[in-house]
Amino acid sequence: MRQRNAPFGRTLCAMVTPFTSAGTLDVDGAARLATRLVAGGCDGLVLNGTTGESPTTTDAEKRELIAAVRSAVGPAVPLVAGVGTADTRHTIELTLAAEKAGADAALVVTPYYSRPQQAAIEAHFRQIADASGLPLMLYDIPGRTATRIAPETIIRLAEHPHIIAVKDCSYDFLGTQRVLAETDLAYYAGCDEHILPLYAVGASGCVSTIANVVPEEVAGILAAFDAEDTALAAELQSRVTPLIEALMASDLPGTVTVKALLNALNLPAGPVRAPLLAAEARTTADLLALYEAGAPVTGPGHAA
């Protein structure tokens, strides 16, 4: 078994935030979904991320969600709370609140919209890291924020004792490998199509969106690689590729497609919040058909 620096687990799910039919936070549904994900092989959960509709949940709802999931899964499952905003002061407030609510770490995205320079980005992360005892996972996703965390900036930030991980959606494989080579940061693939490629070059695991619906399959990819069955790992990654494409590479946000499929499977999800719109019935039917056509996982720890 390969030994990796995986402080928050190996298979993390970027969990959706379930809502009731009235659009309010579904605390019971969140607890049931979190429990299912852990039973399915997720050894860590990311709450209040983009998939969790953090832009449209209130600060109070974010705290309530963390507390409810912590109660449901117990103290042993790492909970990483999304706290990133475009405002450094507000991000610090959310980080402190997440710590108090029971989170084990904070996921901090690059400030968006204002497009700060690298020096400002570095200062932003350092201020948050200084303000709380929580370890930080930097979130590099320029497709949403319009600004990279440059590899040089990440390398400097790695010197901070509270900055210990990165969720990587940079689509800069060369830059990622450079940071892996020059730091001890725990790297997590944030794009489902990169789960196996990044793991193969030394990443710690993944923060997966599709794990909301196929946690066993996602866990199986990494388990097969750890068992040194690289052919099976590649097969399992290929097996989920059509679902990744349908859920994540369409014109709809992943939150919309994942919630549509979860609802079709009678699992906790509920509606999305405006400005998002629910998937059309045809789209949901296509997603369900693709899911049902998938072959079962056969890998270490998974029965055929």
Describe this structure in words.
With 304 residues, this protein is α/β, with parallel strands linked by helices. Helix content is 45%, strand content 12%. It contains twelve helices and eight strands. It has helices at residues 27-39, 59-73, 88-101, 118-131, 142-145, 151-157, 173-182, 195-200, 215-226, 230-248, 254-264, 281-293; strands spanning 11-14, 44-47, 79-82, 105-109, 136-140, 163-168, 186-189, 205-208. The chain has an eight-stranded parallel beta barrel, surrounded by four helices. Strand 3, helix 3 (88-101) and strand 4 (105-109) form a beta-alpha-beta unit. Helix 6 runs parallel beside helix 7. The chain is globular. The two termini are 22 Å apart. Mean pLDDT is 94; it is low at 295-304.
Explain briefly what this protein structure is:
The protein is α/β, with parallel strands linked by helices and 304 residues long. Helix content is 45%, strand content 12%.
SSE blueprint and pairings:
Blueprint: E1 11-14, H1 27-39, E2 44-47, H2 59-73, E3 79-82, H3 88-101, E4 105-109, H4 118-131, E5 136-140, H5 142-145, H6 151-157, E6 163-168, H7 173-182, E7 186-189, H8 195-200, E8 205-208, H9 215-226, H10 230-248, H11 254-264, H12 281-293
Parallel strand pairs: 1-2, 1-8, 2-3, 3-4, 4-5, 5-6, 6-7, 7-8
Helix pairs in contact: 1-2, 2-3, 3-4, 4-6, 6-7, 9-10, 11-12
Q: Which structural class do the helices and strands define?
A: alpha/beta
First CA to last CA: what distance? 22 Å
Radius of gyration: 18 Å
What general outline do the C-alpha atoms trace?
globular
